[in-house]
Each structure stands twice: as C-alpha cells, then as structure tokens.
Design goal:
Layout: H1 8-25, H2 35-56, H3 62-82, H4 86-96, H5 102-125, E1 133-136, E2 139-142, H6 149-166, H7 173-190, H8 193-211, H9 213-216, H10 219-226, H11 228-244, H12 248-256, H13 260-271, H14 285-291, H15 301-309, H16 311-330, H17 334-346, H18 364-377
Antiparallel strand pairs: 1-2
Helix pairs in contact: 1-2, 1-5, 2-4, 3-4, 5-6, 6-7, 6-8, 6-17, 7-8, 8-17, 11-12, 11-13, 11-16, 15-16, 16-17
Length: 378
C-alpha cells in the first residue's frame, strides 16, 4: 500500500492507535503488561501525529477552524462529564483523516485487525495468555485471547465486511464463495450469531440494492436506508419501554436479546438521562470472572450513548450520520452505505458503533465533507 507523504502522519497515528487498543486494551495482554505506562505514551504519540497532519498538511477556512474549535469544546465537555477521554482522541483522528482515501484506511484497518487476530491466536496456543471459555445464550464460546468471547466474532465480522467493501467491484463467484467460507468459519469458531447473521443480511441487501432497480427506487427502502440510524435508535427505546411495562412482546424480546433490555432499563432507572453525559459503573464479563462480582454491562449502543454521553451528543451523532447516509444513497455509493448500515443496526445489541477502532465508517464524516467542498468549487 503506497503512502503519500501528506497522509503519513494520519496513517501512522491510526496504525499505532489501532494496534495498541486491540492488543493491549481489548485482549488478555492488558492484564500482563503495565498499561499505566504504555497508554499515556501511545496516546501522546497518536495525538502528536494527528495534530501534525491537521496543522501541517491540511488547509482550513476560518469558518472551518471555528467549527473545529466549537466541536472540540463540545466533545471535551462530554468527555469530562462522561469520564471517557477517548472521545477527544477519536475526534482528532477523524479530523486528521481529511484527504486520505477511505479505501486506504479500510485496507490498513483490515490488515492490522488480521495481524492482531493472528498474534493473539498464537499467544493463546503458546500459553502466554488465557483462552477462557464462557457459556453465552447456550453456546460455548472461546475468547481466543480477547477479553470477551464475543470480541473475536465482532472483529472477524468487521474484517469480512471490509474485505467485501474492498472487493465490491470484483465480487465474482470465487470471491463470493470465499466470503461464504469466511462467514462460516467465523460462526464455527465464535458462535457469534448476531454478527454473522447481520453481516450476511447487510451484504445480501446491499447486493440487491446495487443490481435491482425496483429496490433502489422503492420509497420505503429509500427512507429506511437514509434514516437507519434514528430508526434503530428509536427501536431500542421502544423495545426497552415494552419490557419496562411488562408486555409479553417485551419479555420475548428481552429473551431474544439475552437480557439486554433488562440491563438497559436498569441503567435508565439508576442513572436517568443527561444533557452532556455522566460516568457509568460498568462491570464487564471478564472483570466479573476475576472478582466474583455480578456483570453489569450496557451493550445497547443508543441507550448507552444517551445515558453516558448525553442527549446533545446523541442527537448530534444521529443527525450527522443520517446526513452522510442520505448523501451516500443519493450518490449510489452502496458499498459505503453497506458499511454504515451494518454499524447502525449492530448498535441495537452492541457498543461497536460507539468505538472508532471498531466503527470504521466514522471516517466517512471527513470523506464526504471534503468531496462536497470539491464539488462546490467545480
């Protein structure tokens, strides 16, 4: 992969950040290495490289600089009140991605994720880190070195999604069979039904969108594709409400979603809503296993977003992503639409959509903004 000098800072920053988070933050290695020393060093390097890209390689109008400053103040406030300072770093990485081809970002992201999967798999086989198993929803799942058994399935599914995106115009019968084999392998190893079912549905639907005019021109499909983020967010709250008022449908949905509605309702009752965010006391499955405590997690992304990051951030997130979805649909960019839709839907059950190191589609924010500016100049 050829790297232009002006993109070196961002691609280096993303490589360092992604490798650190996956290897030291999301895996068993985090319990072996001294993260208190590594984390500040890595974040300092990533922040420095991002700043260098923004202020030495990119050009901004006065109004754009003003917007960046206001946005930074807003994100800093949310980070402070929610105690999640990763949001600031996410913002600078997204801004630093300006001018970098999205396919290059996806390719780099896919390569690093594959390398991390292989490294942890080898370390598990060598006995350096644990490969603990857990019974989740009746299925025996292995962690393969990750902190949670579902993490492997989530990351492997994203790798498949990225491969499909990069091969979108070359998806012949052989490549399609290869994708089917990969999906089957991930399902066999991880028993991650949600991720596997969703990626299968997303890819099939995107393919139909691309090749069948009747589906593309359907008003219902048009609206769903454009407003998928607020639709799924609204569905999250409706499902929790149905469980809260003790309806039969709500109870069934809670069973299907393996108790997620119960936990979401518990967090809503204990914390309530906030405008600019608040810290949450989370006990992960791995922490519960080590300490003997009861797991207390909030997997439903949209519920967590509105509680931990606040109503303002929640609305900002939905409006921004809806705007991008509309632009992608109008320009018939079905492969990019496929990636965004996947993360929008998975937010119903997982936190994947909130984390930049998982949700690669967040980089489309600067991609589409820059293309709009170029089209206006022409």
């Amino acid at each position: 992969m050829r790297v232009e000098s002006k993109n070196f800072f961002f691609l280096s920053a993303w490589s360092v950040f992604l490798f650190y988070v996956l290897i030291f933050n999301e895996s068993e290695l985090g319990y072996i290495m001294d993260n208190n020393i590594i984390k500040p060093l890595v974040f300092g390097i990533v922040f420095f490289l991002s700043i260098m890209k923004i202020f030495t390689c990119d050009k901004y109008k006065v109004t754009e600089l003003f917007i960046i400053i206001i946005l930074t103040i807003f994100i800093a406030c949310v980070s402070y009140f929610s105690h999640n300072y990763n949001l600031i770093l996410f913002e600078f990485l997204i801004i630093a991605s300006k001018g970098v081809d999205f396919k290059k970002i996806v390719k780099l992201d896919m390569i690093i994720k594959i390398v991390c999967i292989l490294i942890l798999f080898i370390l598990c086989k060598k006995g350096v880190i644990n490969n603990y198993t857990a019974i989740i929803n009746g299925s025996i799942k292995q962690s393969f070195g990750w902190l949670h058994p579902n993490t492997f399935g989530a990351i492997a599914s994203i790798v498949i999604l990225e491969y499909i995106y990069l091969s979108w115009n070359k998806l012949n019968a052989l490549r399609t069979l290869f994708v089917i084999a990969l999906i089957s392998l991930v399902y066999f190893l991880s028993s991650s039904r949600t991720n596997v079912y969703l990626i299968t549905f997303t890819v099939v639907f995107s393919y139909l969108m691309k090749h069948f005019k009747i589906i593309r021109e359907s008003k219902a499909v048009n609206k769903i594709c454009i407003y998928i983020y607020p639709i799924v967010a609204l569905a999250s709250f409706i499902f929790v409400y149905l469980f809260k008022v003790d309806t039969n449908l709500g109870i069934v949905l809670n069973e299907i979603l393996t108790g997620r509605l119960y936990l979401a309702n518990l967090f809503l009752e204990n914390y309530g809503l906030s405008l600019v965010g608040q810290p949450l006391n989370i006990v992960t499955t791995r922490q519960a296993l080590l300490t003997g405590k009861t797991p207390v997690v909030l997997d439903m992304a949209y519920i967590r977003m509105v509680i931990q990051y606040g109503i303002f951030y929640f609305l900002f997130f939905l409006i921004l992503n809806t705007k991008i979805q509309k632009k992608l649909f109008t320009e018939k960019k079905y492969s990019e639409l496929m990636i965004m839709s996947y993360f929008a839907i998975i937010g119903l059950t997982e936190n994947t959509v909130l984390n930049l190191y998982m949700n690669i589609s967040l980089f489309l924010i600067m991609q589409e903004k820059e293309k709009s500016e170029k089209s206006e100049k022409q």
